[in-house]
Amino acid sequence: MSAADPLQVLASAGKGESTRSVLRVIILALIAGAAISSRLFSVIRFESIIHEFDPWFNFRATKYLVANGFYNFWDWFDDRTWHPLGRVTGGTLYPGLMVTSGVIYHALRALTIPVDIRNICVLLAPGFSGLTAIAAYLLTNEMTPSPSAGLLAALFMGIAPGYISRSVAGSYDNEAIAIFLLVFTFYLWIKALKQGSMLWGALCALFYGYMVASWGGYAFITCLLPLHSFVLICMGRYSTRLYVAYTTWYALGTLASMQIPFVGFLPVKTSEHMPALGIFGFLQLLAFLDYVRSAIPSRQFQTFLWLFAGTAFGVGLLGLVVATSMGFIAPWSGRFYSLWDTGYAKIHIPIIASVSEHQPTAWPAFFFDLQMLVWLFPVGVYLLFQELADEHVFIVVYALFGSYFAGVMVRLMLTLTPVVCVAAAIAVSHLLDIYLNAKSPENPDAAADKDADGKKGGKAGLKSTNKPLVGIYAGWVKSVIVSSFAIYLLLFVMHCTWVTSNAYSSPSVVLASRLPDGSQHIIDDYREAYQWLRQNTREDAKIMSWWDYGYQIGGMADRPTLVDNNTWNNTHIATVGKAMASSEERSYPIMRQHEVDYVLVVFGGLLGYSGDDINKFLWMVRIAEGIWPDEVKERDFFTARGEYRVDGDATETMKNSVMYKTSYYNYQNLFPPGQAVDRMRGVRLPEVGPQLTHLEEAFTSENWIIRIYKVKDLDNLGRDHASAVAFDKGVKKKKPAKKKGPRVLRVE
Amino acid sequence: MKTSVVFSAFLSLLSLASAATTSSDRKTYPSTFRPPQVFKNANLVHIISLEKNYVKESINVLVENIDKSPQNEYYVPFTADQLSRLGGVEVKDRKDGSVGPFVAEAVELDQSDTHYIRIRLPKALAPGAQQALGITYYLLKAYAPRPASIKQEDQQHLAYAFSAYAPSAYATSKQKTDVKFPSSTIAEYTKLPGSGDVARFPQQQGSKLTYGPFDEKPAGASQPVAVRYEFNKPVTHVSRLERDVEVSHWGGNVAFEERYTLHHRGANLSALFNRVKWQQSQYYQPNTWALKELKFPLRAGSADAYYTDVIGNVSTSRFRSGKREALLEVRPRYPVFGGWKYPFTIGWNSDAKSYLRKTPAGGFVLNVPFLEGPRQAEGVEYEQVQVRVILPEGARNVKFHTTIPTQSIASADVEIHRTFLDTIGRTALIIQARNLVDELRDRELLVSYDYPLSASLRKPLVVFASAMAVFFAAWVVGRVELKFDVAGKK
């Protein structure tokens, strides 16, 4: 649509270069505006709020950076997470996102515009998505001379759901800026490669450094650029341009990446970074060979080449193997293995598998996230194959690898989206360039060709590119093609809007429901409970919850947590899993050892909220079992028939677990006797609810989503808690069953 | 028309209180200071009102000069603890309503537990003459919940201790003390032997207890008594209220923002919060001592109300804007029980027309309520209140006048506040007040200032000039040739 209008305007109005560039700037600005505004659904529907889980940590870190300055942030040791271990936060995060927000914040302050840091964080992702659209425009313009392709790519990039999913307002995550950096780094790489320019190479390295500072996904660039170079070399396209571009990028980029404490010496130590180093060395060899070839006769050169290449490869491989086995180079990490074997994580690292975004992608997700781009994407790649200059090889390689990774892990759909947008834009613009041309081709002997062309246009108009003399003559063919594409584009826009509005714009901290009269009702249980914690508990009260809520508790409740979404310490998480999965008597010592004051569980039974802890419970059990296979057994939580049940037929282990007890404690009293129902799992609960001995209910939110329990202090009289509770309830102390001696008549 | 007359009348008052000077200056006297025994309280009625969650006391006293010379300084004693919680002291002439509030100021003694409030009579009292004084004041944080922690479904009781004889620095011939309660359920009270025709004190009439009348008591006489009564309402205490009033001439808007740090000073929960019980009590017994709701009546025409706290918007609020009054109803995220805390922020916009007037002399007068807290049946007390009136950039000659008792005003300063695209910063009048209660919520704050046209044009000009500078710089940068190869230029 937006591509068609300016073209008509162009045709009638300005033919001059400056008019075109003004139009282009205006269109780009409009696209950027559309990209930003389509991400604001949640702000308009709810409020300017940070979404989900990870962004809460980024937000908290940003606030710390703004409050304490950069150097304190760099050295930040956070003792309010991973109690009692703490976390060297400054050295274990990617600071790019926070620093970007901090810079924007201070710049606005310098202009005396008092913007809240929260609003900067909320709107950072939409803002950068506008920049991503422009970067996609630049990248596409490097691929094709067609002026409309870049604009289409920018448009696709701006509204493709695959990218929106990680960049709606409030989704303050590393990806928010990383995708812009990814696309822009690629653009600079292409620019450097095409011109063989050291300046562009250095710029590429600069943005690569920024990317490394921002997102762990930088490894994608680290692997893709060497791969591209390698493919080029294999195609016999080694050139000094490639040498200059690559060596400049690698040398400066690696240095830049090593400045980030979290990355440090990884670029020379881990396997993920080895391809880049290998290609760097390989390029040196090639350059050397190139020099030698110019110096010695070709027959000698052949022998020299084989000998030299074989030795170099052998030595290099041997060196790599030795260095890996000696431990100088770390072997591939688990997360990396799971990229090749999707079942790896499930068996070896349950904690990775427990995250939904690490699951393999289901095929409908591709249509959901890309819609018509899915089928335009191969067309675009094919068209690039037709020309296959150096830069087109890049897109082809990127497309192959992007597709593979997107199929392996849901979240990597994000890295695929840019190349899909670029390729699809090239395909669409190619079609439109042909069919939107109002003039018939001036061909003197047109009569003979006409039929053939008409057929061709309808069926395979793409081929016509190869034969410049062939053209589309029938006006109706043009109008059919153009209008059908206009409809596709319209449908695409509608699909994107629909997906964004329905799937990706929920803050998940706040839930929305409708009242019978149609008005919106906000379910705000998370913040209710977090605010209660923040205001009415001790400043250093330790909260034990499953790791999903760690960042939120840190950000909203401002209380120390045992585990959080950083998941760097599997054992610590397993400890929490064990405490949740064991009985109260057994988890009480664990909680005392970790100085836990409150236990927080999420319970969706009253509301039918599916993301609750009972549904996640099996992961806790599995992770705990991974460390303590003797003490926690997944099998014990299933009934004899292998069912996972929470009603009266639940296993004893299940019923006695802290998680079960804290979820259902007192819940039965909300219903008439015997009518308690878990609306999430749709089962009727036993009439008598669980009894707590070592914990006591401290707070339950309005819709029971968050339940907070206080861990009792040691009993004043030195009793164990079970007997203390029994005493308070007036239960007679059970006499030991195997009492010796005859029965005595009770005398009172 | 009429209002402008009223405004110009106020202007004469305004000239008295220039904002640059702090309004109340406290004197410290040596600990040996005793008020000269020049007065006698001929008759005294002490009314202690415990109906709200702060104490309102009024002492109606008939003062007689027993000295030989005319006297104009009357002292009322308070303990140091009381003085720190004392607010809103107002003294009026009981007989003649037209005589404005008398000047009342604190006289603090060095290292002594007894301090005084000195009342200056505008006209010295001749020897033997009598003067009827009505002294009212509020005491904050006056109660203790007894028992200190109770169950969620129990009734809350508060205890208050005071002296059956009114505190006075002078001998009192005749006096009585009335204690008003919120309900007739008075669990306990101190009983005293009676005098005269009353067998024993106190006497109860509905929700009122009367100690007295007592006969002649010397200066400083005290008879400690305590009462404990049912108060099944929240004891809402705002430890700090920051109220911002931002005036925009260009926008024709007055923006209000209030940040509350709210505490519940009532009974704590003996067992932790139980949601089942709470939900059940919502149906069966909605009357509770937990704070569930706050109602803020705002001026008519208020708009864009918001209600947030430190982690974002709070969805449990309703804003109704009517012709006569706008009402903002907010509910805390959770019911606030004794010992709990709930800080929050509210804000709204109003049309400047209803607050701002231009004076004939060319200046401006802003008339806003000094305090606009919630209107609760049980009352609200404010320990510290900071009112910040942010005037437009370049406003000068700021003066203010308020009908809040001067004893409660701690300080007033004019500072610079920098915000949206300011170059020299906005003039901000900051008034610190302490120990206020919601009964004073309709008291006015009048601020007069000059705002020349040149100041109002400053911002558009600055913005325009800087935009032009940016364009010019961009043009200059665009002209710079960076390439070595000039021939390759297109």
What attributes does this structure have?
heterodimer; A: 748 residues; mainly alpha; Rossmann fold; 2 domains; two-stranded antiparallel sheet; B: mainly beta; Immunoglobulin-like; eight-stranded mixed β-sheet; seven-stranded mixed β-sheet; 4 helices; disordered N terminus
Helix content of chain B: 10-25%
Morphology of chain B: globular
Beta content of chain B:
over 45%
CATH architecture of the largest domain in chain B: Sandwich
- Class inferred from helices and paired strands of chain B: mainly beta
Q: How much of the residues of chain A is beta strand, in percent?
A: under 5%
How is the main sheet of chain A built?
A: 4 strands, mixed
Task: Provide a descriptive summary of the structure in words.
Chain B: It is a single-pass type I membrane protein. Chain B: Belongs to the OST1 family. Chain B: It comes from Remersonia thermophila. Chain B: The chain crosses the membrane at residues 461-480. The complex is a heterodimer of chains A (748) and B (490). Chain A has 748 residues and is mostly helical. Chain A folds into 2 domains: 4-270 and 332-428, no CATH class; 524-729, Rossmann fold (3-Layer(aba) Sandwich), CATH 3.40.50. The radius of gyration of chain A is 31 Å and the shape is globular. With 490 residues, chain B is mainly beta. Helices cover 11% and strands 48% of the residues of chain B. Chain B has helices spanning 2-14, 80-84, 275-284, 453-479; strands at residues 27-29, 39-49, 55-65, 71-79, 86-93, 103-109, 114-125, 130-139, 144-145, 149-150, 157-163, 175-180, 186-189, 192-193, 200-201, 203-205, 208-214, 224-230, 236-248, 253-264, 268-269, 294-299, 303-309, 312-313, 317-321, 325-330, 341-351, 356-358, 364-369, 381-393, 396-402, 409-417, 426-437, 444-450. An 8-stranded mixed β-sheet of chain B has the order 24-23-27-20-19-30-33-32, with no helix packed on it. Chain B is globular and about 115 Å long. The termini of chain B are far apart. Residues 1-25 of chain B have low confidence and may be disordered. Chain A binds chain B through residues 46-49, 111-114, 510, 522, 524, 527-532, 534-536, 555-556, 666, 669-670, 696-702, 704, 710, and chain B through 271-276, 279, 309-316, 333-334, 339-343, 418-423.
